[in-house]
TrEMBL record, chain A:
Subunit of novel type of clathrin- or non-clathrin-associated protein coat involved in targeting proteins from the trans-Golgi network (TGN) to the endosomal-lysosomal system. Residues 679-710, 722-854, 967-1021 are annotated as: Disordered. Residues 726-737 have a biased composition (Low complexity). This is AP-4 complex subunit epsilon. Residues 681-702, 774-791 have a biased composition (Basic and acidic residues). InterPro entries: Adaptor_Complx_Large_Subunit (IPR050840), AP4_complex_esu (IPR017109), ARM-like (IPR011989), ARM-type_fold (IPR016024), Clathrin/coatomer_adapt-like_N (IPR002553). Adaptor protein complex 4 (AP-4) is a heterotetramer composed of two large adaptins, a medium adaptin and a small adaptin. It comes from the Eukaryota. It comes from Sphagnum jensenii.
UniProtKB/TrEMBL annotation, chain B:
This is AP complex subunit sigma. InterPro entries: AP_complex_ssu, AP_mu_sigma_su, APS3, Clathrin_sm-chain_CS, Longin-like_dom_sf. It comes from the Eukaryota. The keyword Transport applies. Keywords: Cytoplasmic vesicle, Golgi apparatus, Membrane, Protein transport, Transport.
Length: 1021, 167
């Protein structure tokens, strides 16, 4: 057959292709194509174009359209060509039509008749051409027109036609299930067609049918099993072999169907076990297609009712995939691993290094697949590492779709497993920065809530510290040029609420920044609203602290702008700010108390305090109340919604109700006069017009004006406050809580001066800076990748690894790793200790090296170099991750072994490391080290007794001892052991208690009646 | 099912495009561009799969193979086997090779209607119909034999050789 210029290509077409191919630029190409289109447009409408010429034109049209240009002017010619009797022209016509038109195109109706005719043709090739076209061109309305003919073809003598007819029916079923519903039994029938290729076509259709409803087809299981058995046993003709594998696509299809049929069905599954074993046995693991079948087996085995024996084989194959050098197999291996660990979670641990390899692979697909896998196996012990990887991957992404998905995953993981609030806030900030407005607003509200409510512990100091650090980080973030709106809202809110709380920043400073924010986002009303509200709050805090507020000019302009804003919401806010500036400190303190964002707002839904007013009004001849639905006119409704829209107005607006006169004076002016505290409390309900608060009230149906104190303290509905307008809540303030708040405010200010440093230090031990430390440690040059990987693996896969490493399966793992220095190190190690001077220590070193070999791949004679490793590992010791601690436990032994060799001691090294860190804590890590060493020593010798490389009698005793520390170690992995650092204790299960305590402390002198309504449910639930 | 079968060269120029799901011309071009930019960024030894959720919806990926100057690409959903698709590409290329004797990019450009015929014998309506390249070839040759009856004036083409060596 000629390789070029066969029929169908004219000289002109070849010239066209040639000139496009030689085009120097995109523009030149465009020009050529445009000229071609012009030419074609002219030619095809000429009368009496020879049919063959027309065919060429149409082929050229197809080509032009493939390049992305509109060829719709020629569609009709293509349709006409399908009517031609000449097979060549007809086929060309069909080809063009299937490429040009989709099933809903208007021209289709002109083809249906031709298709009908062709389906009845004596020439099977014409039938085939029509059947191929049918798959693409028909929709729900046109399918019935050709259905009878297609069904007829199911009985065609040629298997090629039968096969295509089945395919066409399958396509019809996909397009419009109802149109072929009466034919579904046919598919079962076709399964018994004497020609296997027709049967295989039916499998495609049955796969879809089984996917939709497995129960209806479960009785076919034995048929599928027997077909598969015959295929596997090579009973089909050699024609169906592909690279000596019998009918692989049939095997794969049937395996997929079996997975659907056997899922959750013990009996059905048992029928498959033997054939699955047979497939596994016979598949050729050396060929690609053989592995395709094996992978499909894994999918089936892990989906159906489990058979331990088959699972074992599946796991084995998965290991082989993961260890393969071929990236395709690695990809399949990661996927298979995800399936296997669903049934056997411990399986992951054996392959951690392979997983890490994939995670660090430059191959994007592989990396993403691995992140998928990690996402599925995230626990609280490895969340930090996984999220860190996700975020660093997110940095490299630039399409919105993937970013959104990844961001939502990060948020989900952070909310579910966050080890500390600080970490959560930092993570969220990163997500906002990277994914910006792709993040749902609820996440921002959760973040603000968390900041407002603090750690949920009985520790106001830590909370304010958290807030200060948030303020600092946000002020820093504001320096960035382009920030997403959501993040800006959070920033404004935080600055407004806590910007001046710790005294490091002056009010003017913060207000200036807030004005900048608003100014640089002129189009964003929400951000502006947040900004002006924040300014209002800061002014209020200043006033209530007794300081004179002198607005900076920048801010005045801003306010003036807003006063004339098109947005009534912004106007309202600006007016409020102006009004507040005119009030006395006392009043302002009531309106916008310091740090009151978590206080509840009380709602008296009966408006009982109004009774008096209503009565007197009625006595004066006012009309009685008429329910809304009885009223004509919409004015009241409008008012209602308007009030809902008005935001921070509640602090001010309710004054209007307070004065029992129809012609109320301007609310703000009335405020200072009409504010004796008891009354104030009663007025609160008026602010409850907004739906949100009514909801809050709904949660407390027993809200009773007789018992206001108790009711007020219930924190139910706290999350309702996270609506947009809730920040400056003031109304819940009772006299007592006011006092408290005043104290608290000054507390915060004074504490900052003295206790600040101390507090920082404290928190650095507690929870936060772990991640910082880790970052520092990351920045260091990593001499040994495998150390890093090992640690990564450890932190990802958590507890079981430890036992795995001790119990010898780790040995196999290590030796199977290619291209690291681990192996030599291992081999060299055992003899070394005996040559060392101090027997005990040296052997400790050797053994522990051997145990932790993957962590410290440096050869023994370079031991002093390992000092470089030590501090790096040690930094993780105080971390939150239990497994990290465990690893830390092992590593220090090396330190001790290294002691005699270099002049410096390990602890010196440690100290020097911590010099670089913010707020070094002298005691924390160091004590840990010594503790750890003492624990690690015996446990490592247990490794010695197991590996029995050298049996020092003195060690045997220690080996006996080892049992208990070791148990303890594994215990600590589960977060129960006593050797946890402080942070561990801090975030123990007592969160609920401390939450309550915190709630109690917030409401000094009053007994809380209800439990705190799962403030952190989202986070830790 | 198979959502699309594409052949494009390493410059991103489409050579064969066949979509088994309805997709407007604009969308098709966009898909081709996105796929090309995804593929051209991939290092040589990476795996043959790329997730394409942003083009073809959830759970879809493309399986591709790189031969000389061409990418052969199948876009599939989760009901097809990824590794199996690699072999399907192999079948496709083997058939082309048998058909054109040492197939090269230009064969595909100049005979793209032929290539479509071959593809139609392998994949129909998004489902794999035949995986034996000998069978495919036989079916295709049957068609061509018949077509030739009505098409005697095969235009002879000259000068291709020189063009071919240039590119």
């Amino acid at each position: 057959m000629s390789s070029q210029g066969g029929w169908g290509s004219s000289k002109e077409f070849l010239d066209l292709v040639k000139s496009i191919g030689e085009a120097k630029s995109k523009a030149e190409e465009e020009r050529i194509v445009a000229a071609e289109i012009e030419m074609l447009k002219r030619r095809i409408v000429e009368p009496d174009v020879p049919r063959k010429k027309m065919k060429e034109y149409i082929i050229r049209l197809v080509y032009v359209e493939m390049l992305g240009h509109d060829a719709s002017f020629g569609y009709i010619q293509a349709v006409k060509m399908t009517h031609d009797d000449n097979l060549l022209l007809k086929r060309s016509g069909y080809l063009a039509v299937t490429l040009f038109l989709n099933e809903d195109h208007d021209l289709i109706i002109l083809i249906v008749n031709t298709i009908q005719k062709d389906l009845k043709s004596d020439n099977y090739l014409v039938c085939c051409a029509a059947l191929t076209a049918v798959c693409k061109l028909l929709n729900e309305e046109t399918i019935p027109a050709v259905l009878p003919q297609v069904v007829e073809l199911l009985a065609h003598p040629k298997e090629l036609v039968r096969k295509k007819a089945v395919m066409a029916l399958h396509r019809f079923h996909q397009r419009s299930p109802s149109s072929v519903s009466h034919l579904i039994p046919k598919f079962r029938q076709i399964l018994c067609d004497k020609d296997p290729s027709v049967m295989s076509a039916a499998l495609c259709a049955l796969f879809d049918l089984v996917t939709a409803d497995a129960n209806a087809y479960r009785n076919l299981t034995t048929s599928f099993v027997s077909i598969l058995k015959q295929v596997v046993e090579h009973r089909l003709s050699k024609l169906f072999d592909y690279h000596r594998t019998p009918a692989p696509f049939i095997q794969i299809k049937i395996l997929k169907i079996l997975a659907l049929l056997g899922a959750g069905e013990k009996h059905t599954s048992e029928n498959m076990y033997s054939v699955l074993a047979e497939v596994l046995k016979r598949s050729d693991a050396a060929s690609n297609i053989g592995n395709a079948i094996l992978y499909e087996c894994i999918c089936t085995i892990t989906t159906i009712h489990a058979s331990p024996r088959l699972l074992e084989v599946a796991a084995e194959i998965t290991s082989r995939f993961l260890k393969s050098e071929n990236h395709n197999y690695k990809y399949m291996g990661i996927d298979a691993l995800g399936r296997v660990i669903k049934i056997n979670p411990d399986f992951a641990e054996q392959h951690q290094l392979a997983v890490i390899d994939c995670l660090e692979d430059p191959d994007d697909t592989l990396k993403r697949k691995t992140l998928d896998l990690l996402y599925k196996m995230t626990k609280s012990s490895n969340v930090e590492v996984i999220v860190e990887h996700m975020i660093s991957y997110m940095r490299t992404l630039n399409d919105a779709h993937n970013k959104t998905e990844l961001a939502s995953r990060v948020i989900e993981l952070a909310e579910r497993f966050a080890p500390s609030n600080q970490w959560f806030i930092q993570t969220m900030n990163q997500v906002f920065e990277l994914a910006g407005d792709l993040v749902p607003p609820k996440v921002a509200h959760d973040l603000m809530r968390l900041l407002a409510e603090g750690a949920g512990e009985d520790d106001e100091e830590a909370d304010s510290l958290l807030r200060s650090s948030a303020v600092e980080s946000y002020l820093h973030v504001l320096g960035e040029p382009k920030l997403p709106s959501v993040l800006l809202q959070v920033i404004c809110w935080v600055l407004g609420e806590y910007g001046t709380a710790d005294g490091t920043h002056s009010a003017d400073d913060i207000i200036g920044r807030l004005c900048d924010v608003a100014e640089s986002h002129p189009g964003d009303i929400t951000v502006k609203g947040y900004s002006i509200t924040a300014i209002t709050k800061i002014c209020a805090f200043e006033i209530s602290a007794g300081r004179q507020v002198d607005l900076i000019p920048e801010c005045r302009t801003f306010i003036e702008d807003l006063l004339a804003s098109h947005s009534t919401d912004l106007q309202q806010r600006a007016y409020e700010l102006q009004a507040i500036l005119a009030l006395s400190p006392e009043t302002v303190a009531n309106i916008l108390p310091m740090d009151a964002s978590c206080e509840d707002i009380e709602v008296d839904r009966n408006l009982s305090f109004l009774n008096e007013f209503v009565e007197s009004a009625a006595a004066n001849g006012a009309r009685s109340y008429m329910p809304e639905n009885e009223r004509a006119g919409m004015s009241t409704v409008v008012t209602g919604t308007h009030e809902q829209l008005e935001s921070s107005a509640h602090a001010l607006r309710f004054e209007a109700y307070e004065v029992p006169k129809p012609a109320a004076p301007p609310p703000i002016a009335a405020a200072p006069a009409a504010l004796p505290f008891p009354d104030f409390e009663e007025q609160k309900p008026e602010s409850s017009r907004s739906l949100r608060k009514q909801l809050a009230a709904d949660r407390e149906p027993d809200a009773d004006s007789l018992n206001p104190e108790i009711v007020r303290l219930r924190l139910d509905g706290v999350q309702k406050k996270w609506g947009r307008y809730s920040q400056p809540q003031s109304s819940s303030t009772s006299t007592s809580s006011l006092d408290r708040r005043g104290d608290h405010g000054s507390d915060q200010v004074t504490q900052v001066g003295g206790g600040h440093r101390e507090a920082v230090a404290a928190s650095s031990i507690e929870s936060g800076p772990v991640s910082e430390l880790r970052q520092i440690e990351r920045k260091k040059p990593q001499p040994e990748i495998s150390t890093e990987k090992q640690r990564l693996a450890a932190s990802l896969f958590g507890g079981p690894t430890a036992s795995g490493r001790f119990s010898g399966s780790g040995g196999a793992k290590v030796s199977s790793r290619p291209g690291t220095i681990v192996q030599p190190a291992e081999k060299v190690l055992p003899p070394r200790p005996s040559s060392g001077g101090s027997k005990e220590k040296a052997s400790d070193a050797g053994i522990s090296k051997q145990i932790a070999a993957p962590s410290i791949p440096a050869p023994v004679d370079l031991l002093d170099m390992s000092d470089d490793n030590v501090p790096r590992v040690m930094t993780t010791a105080p971390g939150n991750d239990p497994f990290k601690q465990l690893e830390g436990l092992l590593e220090p032994v090396t330190t001790s072994s290294a002691l005699p060799v270099p002049p410096q001691t390990a602890s010196m090294d440690l100290m020097s490391l911590y010099d670089g860190n913010p707020a070094p804590s002298a005691t924390g890590p160091v004590t840990t080290v010594s503790d750890l060493v003492s624990i690690a020593a015996p446990s490592s010798s247990s490794g010695a007794s197991q590996s029995s490389t050298n049996g020092f009698p003195s060690l045997m005793d220690l080996g006996d001892l080892s049992a208990s520390p070791f148990v303890e170690l594994t215990g600590s992995v589960q977060g129960q052991a006593s050797s946890k650092p402080m942070s561990q204790l801090k975030k123990g299960p007592s969160r609920q208690d401390s939450l309550q305590k915190d709630a109690a402390s917030r409401h000094v002198g009053v007994t809380p009646t209800g439990t705190n309504p799962a403030l952190f449910q989202d986070l830790f639930g | 099912m198979i959502l699309a079968a594409l052949v494009m060269n390493t410059q991103g120029k489409p050579r064969i495009t066949k979509f088994y799901v309805p997709l407007g011309v604009e969308k098709q071009q966009e898909a081709i561009r996105t796929i090309y930019s995804a593929l051209s960024q991939r290092p040589e030894d990476s795996c043959s799969f790329v997730e394409t959720e942003n083009i073809f919806g959830p759970d879809t990926k493309l399986v591709y193979k790189h031969f000389a100057t061409l990418y052969f690409i199948f876009v599939i959903d989760s009901s097809e086997s990824e590794l199996g698709m690699l072999d399907l590409i192999q079948v496709f290329v083997e058939t082309l090779d048998r058909c054109f004797k040492n197939v090269c990019e230009l064969d595909i450009v100049y005979n793209f209607n032929k290539v479509h015929t071959i593809l139609d014998e392998i994949v129909m309506g998004g489902q794999v119909v035949e995986t034996n390249s000998a069978e495919v070839l036989k079916a295709v040759q049957d068609i061509w034999k018949l077509e030739r009856v009505g098409d005697l004036n095969v235009p002879s083409v000259r000068g291709i050789g020189s063009y071919r060596s240039k590119s």
